[in-house]
Design goal:
alpha/beta, 5-stranded mixed β-sheet, 193 residues, 5 strands, Nucleotidyltransferase, domain 5
Length: 193
Protein backbone atom coordinates (compact mmCIF):
# COMPACT_ATOMS: atom_id res chain seq x y z
CA UNK A 1 0.00 0.00 0.00
CA UNK A 2 1.32 3.45 -0.92
CA UNK A 3 1.90 5.85 1.94
CA UNK A 4 -0.14 9.00 2.44
CA UNK A 5 1.93 12.16 2.36
CA UNK A 6 0.61 15.46 3.68
CA UNK A 7 2.04 18.79 2.67
CA UNK A 8 1.78 21.74 5.03
CA UNK A 9 2.36 25.43 4.51
CA UNK A 10 1.32 28.64 6.22
CA UNK A 11 0.41 32.18 5.30
CA UNK A 12 0.62 35.26 7.47
CA UNK A 13 3.84 34.91 9.43
CA UNK A 14 5.15 38.26 8.21
CA UNK A 15 1.90 40.12 8.78
CA UNK A 16 1.24 42.58 11.57
CA UNK A 17 -2.49 41.90 11.59
CA UNK A 18 -4.74 38.88 11.53
CA UNK A 19 -4.22 35.19 12.23
CA UNK A 20 -1.62 32.86 10.83
CA UNK A 21 -3.31 30.21 8.70
CA UNK A 22 -1.88 26.79 7.85
CA UNK A 23 -3.24 24.20 5.46
CA UNK A 24 -2.55 20.50 5.10
CA UNK A 25 -3.23 18.58 1.89
CA UNK A 26 -3.02 14.88 1.04
CA UNK A 27 -3.28 13.66 -2.53
CA UNK A 28 -4.09 10.10 -3.47
CA UNK A 29 -0.94 8.25 -4.53
CA UNK A 30 -0.38 8.86 -8.24
CA UNK A 31 -2.89 11.71 -8.42
CA UNK A 32 -2.37 14.31 -11.15
CA UNK A 33 -1.05 17.49 -9.55
CA UNK A 34 -0.17 19.31 -12.76
CA UNK A 35 -0.38 23.09 -12.57
CA UNK A 36 0.28 23.49 -8.86
CA UNK A 37 2.86 26.09 -7.85
CA UNK A 38 3.86 28.18 -4.88
CA UNK A 39 0.90 30.46 -4.11
CA UNK A 40 3.13 33.55 -4.21
CA UNK A 41 3.81 32.88 -7.90
CA UNK A 42 0.14 32.66 -8.89
CA UNK A 43 -2.35 35.38 -9.75
CA UNK A 44 -5.28 35.59 -7.31
CA UNK A 45 -7.78 34.32 -9.90
CA UNK A 46 -5.58 31.30 -10.65
CA UNK A 47 -5.20 30.58 -6.93
CA UNK A 48 -8.99 30.51 -6.58
CA UNK A 49 -9.38 28.04 -9.44
CA UNK A 50 -6.66 25.79 -8.05
CA UNK A 51 -8.05 26.00 -4.52
CA UNK A 52 -11.39 24.73 -5.79
CA UNK A 53 -9.65 21.90 -7.59
CA UNK A 54 -7.58 21.02 -4.52
CA UNK A 55 -10.65 20.95 -2.27
CA UNK A 56 -12.64 18.78 -4.66
CA UNK A 57 -9.93 16.45 -5.94
CA UNK A 58 -7.51 15.89 -3.06
CA UNK A 59 -7.84 12.87 -0.83
CA UNK A 60 -7.98 15.16 2.21
CA UNK A 61 -7.39 18.76 3.19
CA UNK A 62 -7.80 20.89 6.28
CA UNK A 63 -7.02 24.35 7.54
CA UNK A 64 -5.71 25.33 10.97
CA UNK A 65 -5.14 28.72 12.50
CA UNK A 66 -3.58 30.58 15.37
CA UNK A 67 -5.32 33.72 16.50
CA UNK A 68 -3.73 37.11 17.10
CA UNK A 69 -3.88 36.57 20.88
CA UNK A 70 -2.03 33.26 20.49
CA UNK A 71 0.59 34.86 18.26
CA UNK A 72 1.17 37.59 20.84
CA UNK A 73 1.29 35.09 23.70
CA UNK A 74 3.38 32.32 22.11
CA UNK A 75 5.47 34.13 19.44
CA UNK A 76 5.01 33.75 15.70
CA UNK A 77 7.03 30.54 15.29
CA UNK A 78 5.17 28.65 18.01
CA UNK A 79 1.84 30.03 16.80
CA UNK A 80 2.67 28.92 13.26
CA UNK A 81 3.48 25.44 14.51
CA UNK A 82 0.22 25.44 16.48
CA UNK A 83 -1.73 26.30 13.31
CA UNK A 84 0.09 23.51 11.46
CA UNK A 85 -0.70 20.99 14.20
CA UNK A 86 -4.35 22.05 14.11
CA UNK A 87 -4.46 21.59 10.33
CA UNK A 88 -3.05 18.06 10.57
CA UNK A 89 -5.38 17.21 13.47
CA UNK A 90 -8.36 18.34 11.37
CA UNK A 91 -7.51 16.00 8.48
CA UNK A 92 -10.07 13.21 8.11
CA UNK A 93 -7.23 10.72 7.54
CA UNK A 94 -3.84 10.71 9.18
CA UNK A 95 -0.80 10.92 6.94
CA UNK A 96 2.06 8.45 7.11
CA UNK A 97 4.56 11.22 6.38
CA UNK A 98 4.42 15.01 6.50
CA UNK A 99 6.37 17.51 4.44
CA UNK A 100 6.44 21.05 5.79
CA UNK A 101 7.63 24.13 3.96
CA UNK A 102 10.46 25.74 5.90
CA UNK A 103 13.43 24.82 8.00
CA UNK A 104 11.71 23.66 11.21
CA UNK A 105 9.43 20.71 11.71
CA UNK A 106 6.46 21.38 14.01
CA UNK A 107 5.73 19.15 17.02
CA UNK A 108 3.45 16.75 15.15
CA UNK A 109 2.57 13.23 16.24
CA UNK A 110 3.58 11.84 12.87
CA UNK A 111 6.97 11.62 11.18
CA UNK A 112 8.07 13.97 8.47
CA UNK A 113 10.53 16.56 7.31
CA UNK A 114 10.95 20.28 6.82
CA UNK A 115 11.87 21.30 3.28
CA UNK A 116 13.20 24.77 2.54
CA UNK A 117 11.50 25.95 -0.64
CA UNK A 118 9.09 23.03 -0.47
CA UNK A 119 6.23 25.17 -1.76
CA UNK A 120 8.06 25.35 -5.08
CA UNK A 121 9.13 21.70 -5.28
CA UNK A 122 6.56 19.48 -3.51
CA UNK A 123 3.02 19.29 -4.92
CA UNK A 124 1.35 18.70 -1.55
CA UNK A 125 3.10 21.72 -0.04
CA UNK A 126 2.27 23.88 -3.06
CA UNK A 127 -1.37 22.87 -2.69
CA UNK A 128 -1.28 23.70 1.02
CA UNK A 129 0.25 27.10 0.26
CA UNK A 130 -2.58 27.83 -2.18
CA UNK A 131 -5.32 26.86 0.28
CA UNK A 132 -3.74 28.77 3.16
CA UNK A 133 -3.36 31.88 1.00
CA UNK A 134 -6.92 31.75 -0.34
CA UNK A 135 -8.43 31.17 3.11
CA UNK A 136 -6.41 33.94 4.77
CA UNK A 137 -6.94 36.45 1.96
CA UNK A 138 -10.69 35.89 2.13
CA UNK A 139 -10.67 36.38 5.87
CA UNK A 140 -8.74 39.63 5.56
CA UNK A 141 -11.19 40.88 2.92
CA UNK A 142 -14.11 40.16 5.28
CA UNK A 143 -12.27 41.88 8.12
CA UNK A 144 -11.72 44.87 5.82
CA UNK A 145 -15.48 45.17 5.31
CA UNK A 146 -16.14 44.83 9.05
CA UNK A 147 -13.40 47.28 10.06
CA UNK A 148 -12.90 49.69 7.17
CA UNK A 149 -10.11 52.21 7.24
CA UNK A 150 -7.06 49.95 7.44
CA UNK A 151 -7.22 48.70 3.81
CA UNK A 152 -6.84 45.09 4.95
CA UNK A 153 -8.35 43.89 1.69
CA UNK A 154 -5.47 45.52 -0.17
CA UNK A 155 -2.38 44.54 1.85
CA UNK A 156 -3.86 41.51 3.68
CA UNK A 157 -2.22 42.54 6.95
CA UNK A 158 1.34 42.81 5.69
CA UNK A 159 3.35 45.83 6.88
CA UNK A 160 3.11 47.87 3.69
CA UNK A 161 3.53 51.64 3.68
CA UNK A 162 -0.26 51.98 3.35
CA UNK A 163 -0.88 49.73 6.34
CA UNK A 164 1.72 51.45 8.52
CA UNK A 165 0.25 54.86 7.61
CA UNK A 166 -3.29 53.71 8.46
CA UNK A 167 -2.07 52.10 11.66
CA UNK A 168 -0.34 55.34 12.67
CA UNK A 169 -3.40 57.49 11.93
CA UNK A 170 -6.09 55.16 13.32
CA UNK A 171 -4.25 53.30 16.06
CA UNK A 172 -4.08 49.57 16.65
CA UNK A 173 -7.25 47.52 16.45
CA UNK A 174 -8.19 44.12 17.89
CA UNK A 175 -6.76 42.36 14.84
CA UNK A 176 -3.28 43.89 15.16
CA UNK A 177 -0.45 41.84 16.65
CA UNK A 178 0.68 43.85 19.64
CA UNK A 179 3.92 41.90 19.99
CA UNK A 180 5.10 43.06 16.55
CA UNK A 181 7.36 46.13 16.48
CA UNK A 182 5.33 48.41 14.14
CA UNK A 183 2.17 47.85 16.19
CA UNK A 184 3.99 48.17 19.51
CA UNK A 185 5.49 51.49 18.34
CA UNK A 186 2.02 52.89 17.59
CA UNK A 187 0.71 51.73 20.97
CA UNK A 188 3.73 53.20 22.76
CA UNK A 189 3.30 56.55 20.97
CA UNK A 190 -0.38 56.75 21.86
CA UNK A 191 0.36 55.81 25.49
CA UNK A 192 2.97 58.57 25.71
CA UNK A 193 0.51 61.20 24.46
Amino acid sequence: MASLVAGIDEVGRGCIAGPVIAAAVIFAPGQDTHGLADSKRLRPDRRLVLAGRICSESLAWAVGRAEVSEIDQLNILRATHLAMCRAVAALPVLPDWVRVDGNRYPPLDCPGEAIVGGDASVAEIAAASILAKVFRDREMEVLDRLCPGYALGVHKGYPTRLHIDRLASRGASFFHRRSFAPVRAVIDRSSAS
